[in-house]
Amino acid sequence: MLGRAPDVVVSAPGRVNLIGEHTDYNDGFVLPTVIPQRTFIAVSRRDGSHVRAHSETLGGDDGYELGREARVGRWIDYLQGVTHSLAKSGRVLRGFDVVVASDVPVGSGLSSSAALEVAMMRALRATFELELDDVELARLAQRGENEIVGAPVGILDPLACSLGEIGSALFVDTRSLGSERIVIPRAVELVVVDSGVAHDHVQGGYRERRAQCEEAARRLGVRALRDVGEDDLARIASLRPPLDRRARHVVTENARVLRAVDAMRRDDVHTLGALFDASHESMRDDFEVSVPRVDRLVERAKAHPEVIGARLTGGGFGGAIVALARAGHGADAASAIAAEPGARALVPPPPR
């Protein structure tokens, strides 16, 4: 489509969240890492204010006018969100052609949308020489997805795709946006298996869960569920159902993230695996975002002799699982877990 050599070619990775689910929009803690699969973007400047876009992997040709971004319900909305939020932040853009290619699985809970948005942000930052650091880049990506795509996502996904590195997890306090890289213990390999059940943050229960968390915080008299802890579980239990369960998940999940970081620092993979298992149970029973096929994948993983722990990763209602396998056994474990009909193993991270 470009018809000439692009001005810029960039990429951004997908991510898998190790632990800390539905905590980001509650000002809590998260612990993601990136995966080898990436979204690639090539951009060329053009005159005027028109954007021409093409992607064989996402949906063919599309386009729009800068300054007239509006949701149309197609993949182009993610690009519109990027240029919309850049303009709202005072950055000046001109027309461009863009080609997108990605091998981040769509609808698998591995941040295909954030990888696209972050890659697009990087491309426009380079093309138009924008002053934009990696944290602000993530915040603008989130804003675009909230306001144009219409998905009420938190900061976890774009921040992970913007700051993450293979071989380490990114421990993030989503209130301060402070982060620290935590080395993944060498005694384990991450196994990621796609359930084949696609999820969608624009529709379905994600929006409802966020609203329930906000209502629980109001009823508890706090700014966000980050501001209550395990000492408050008795007070949380007095909330009406299901607010009690939603808040209990967020509070205990925040605590699990902190314990997971401590376990990783000590190379205590058995504690880390137990935290994975407990997180999945909380996602399944208290937050109620798992589905039967995902639960079967987790149980299949836990039954494997070389798997230490497993959980649903991502927002839920489908998507993928992440498991901890003993080093050297990740490929075998992935193959066994993916024997579940409809599932597929994703390429594990390369050796560190």
TrEMBL record:
PANTHER family in UniProt: GALACTOKINASE-RELATED, MEVALONATE KINASE/GALACTOKINASE
Family statement drawn from the similarity comment of this UniProt entry: Belongs to the GHMP kinase family. GalK subfamily.
UniProt keyword DNA damage, yes or no: no
Lineage: Bacteria, Pseudomonadati, Myxococcota, Polyangia, Polyangiales
UniProt entry keywords in alphabetical sequence: ATP-binding, Carbohydrate metabolism, Cytoplasm, Galactose metabolism, Kinase, Magnesium, Metal-binding, Nucleotide-binding, Transferase
Name of protein: Galactokinase
InterPro entries reported in the protein's UniProt record: Galactokinase, Galactokinase_CS, GalKase_N, GHMP_kinase_C_dom, GHMP_kinase_C_sf, GHMP_kinase_N_dom, GHMP_knse_ATP-bd_CS, Mevalonate/galactokinase
GO MF annotation list: ATP binding; galactokinase activity; metal ion binding
Its EC number(s): 2.7.1.6
GO biological process: galactose metabolic process
Domain GHMP kinase N-terminal per the UniProt entry, residue ranges: 80-164
Annotated Pfam families: GalKase_gal_bdg, GHMP_kinases_C, GHMP_kinases_N
Class of the enzyme per the UniProt entry, highest EC level: transferase
Biological source species: Sandaracinus amylolyticus
Domain GHMP kinase C-terminal: 261-339
